[in-house]
C-alpha cells in the first residue's frame, strides 16, 4: 500500500515590513537584472529537525515576526516588478503596505526520506515550496511546512530578476539571524547596498539585453513542464573523491613533454565529472555539441569593485562547448575539465572590459537551453554561496534542496553539509537518474 504524501495548508497570510518603517522606493533594473528577466524563480527548501523541547506554535510566531523585521531591511522583496509611472521601464517598486505571502502547512510525508540523498519524486518536494501568487509582479513567497514530531521545512521562492544567489542568501541569513538572536544582533548580515549607480553600463547593455529578450519566443531556461517521472537525488563528492577525480583527469590528459598539469580547481573537476555522466546517461544522438553553463560572480570584477553587500544580480553566464563524442569518450573527464577550467581562467584574466564587449547574442544563448540548438546543462547554484550555516535557532539545516532546476535541465552544486567537498543535486527522469547514478559511481572507482 502506497504511503500518503499529503500537504495540508493551515494558514495563508501576508507579511510586510513594520508600518511606516520604509519609505516608498523605486529601484531600476541593471543589465545584470535584465539578463534574468524571463528566468524561472529560484526555489530552495531548508529542512530542520525538531527536538523534544521545541514548541511549534512559538517557533512559527517567531518566524513570522522575524520575517517582517527582515523585510524592513530587504524591503524590495516585498515590492513588485512593475512599469515606472515616469518612464514605462520595468523597475522594482516598494510602497508602504506591500507584503509577501507566507503559507503555513502540515505534511504527513516521511521526513527522514525527504532529507536523505536517495531519489524521490520531484512532486513531493514541489509541495514544500510556494509559487509566487502573481508570477508577473511578485518577487518573494515563503512556505513553512511542519512534519509533526519530526521537523519542518522553509521553502523560499525568489524571482531571479530581483536577486542572485548571493543576495538571496544575504536575505535568508539575515532573517535567520533575527529569528535566532533578535534585531541588532552582532550576527546579522551586513546592510544591503541598493545603489544602482555602482553598476557601470557604458555600452548600454541594459537596452541591448531588453531588445534581445523581446526577440525571444520563450522564457530563459524554460523547456515546458517536467515529466511526471522526474525524480530528484543528491550525490556527494567529498575531498577524497575529488582528489581521485583529479588523478583521473591527469591520467586522461594527453602527455606533453615538459608541460605541467594545470592546477584544476575542485569546482572544475566536480562539474566535469557530473557533465560527463549526464551526457553518457542520456546517450543522445541528435546533437554533435555538448553545452554547459555556470555563473560567475562579478562583484569583484569591476574597477572599482561593486560592494560585496550589493543587493540584486551581479553574475554573468559562462558558456562551455565541446564535442559530445569527445565528452562521452574515454578521456571525457579531461575534455570537460580542461574546457571548464579554460573558461574560468578567461573570466579571471579578462575582467570587466571583456564582459562588457562580449554581449552579442547572450540572451539568445540562454534561450537555447533545451531547444533545437542542443541541450545545455545548467549549473544553478554555486558552493561559494553557502547554505548550511542558516540557523533560525533550531540548529543547522538537516538538508537543503534547490528545486528550481526542475524542468530546465539544471543541476545544483552546494557545499557539503558536513564541510567536506560538494553536494550535487539533480532532477532527471527516473530511468535516466538510475543510469546517471551508476556512471557517477563507476567514474569514481
TrEMBL record:
The keyword Oxidoreductase does not apply. The keyword Acyltransferase applies. Keywords: Acyltransferase, Transferase. It comes from the Eukaryota. GO terms for molecular function: acyltransferase activity, transferring groups other than amino-acyl groups. Signal peptide: none annotated. PANTHER family: PTHR31625. This is Anthocyanidin 3-O-glucoside 6''-O-acyltransferase-like protein. The lineage of its organism: Eukaryota, Viridiplantae, Streptophyta, Embryophyta, Tracheophyta.
